[in-house]
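Supplementary notes for students who missed Thursday's class. We covered one full example, reproduced here. Read the sequence, then the structure, then the short commentary at the end.
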Amino acid sequence: MNTNPISARMLIALFVAAVGAAGCSSDDPPAQSAESSDTKPAAEKPATPPADTPPTTAEGGTVSGVVGSNLTTATAEVTAVDLEKRLVTVRRPNGKTSTIRCGEGVRNLAQVKVGDQVTVAYHESLAFEVRKPGETPPGTTVTGAAARAKEGEQPAGAVGQTIQVTATIVAIDRTTMMLTLKGPDGTEIEVKARDPEKVALVSVGDVMEITYTEALAVSVTTPDAK
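Structure (token representation):
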């Protein structure tokens, strides 16, 4: 997982691109997806992503929705373990092998045996919620959490990160359904809304919270003896 915080401008651009992919459009060019230098799990068993959640009106007139959500899982078989060098070699379903160096933070490496199955799951989602002025301060926040297996258990761990950016609605064209968002750094981006009923609920000065969440989980299991 990429641990470098994404910039507010990049996250707003990602939101605009995702909204466009979901059936809307933006006056700005589509955002280019940036590949992280970290290795992400191969999408060998992509789960069917849930359909985009249309904007909804919560109690108090709040407009919110999920622009996109995706879960990808991959499995591999352990083919070699070098405890002295802390290296584990795995073979993926396509037959290709990879050698992973496990840091000292990986507990219970001695529990891993040849033939064990390694499962990796990666989830990401992008959501938004419109709030009235003063309900949430402008800016960018990044929060993270991590967990790992207890002593004596099979190696496992999970790490997650949530990035939230607030952008102010500075202009609304109800005829063309275009909203202009101003990010914390002053960048303005236009995005075309989908639902005129929801656009009627927002006003200039309202704040849109854009939340990007990603999580990575890794577990090791030993196949049942036949």
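Commentary. The chain has two helices and eleven strands. The chain has one domain: 8-70+120-216. If anything here is unclear, bring it to office hours.
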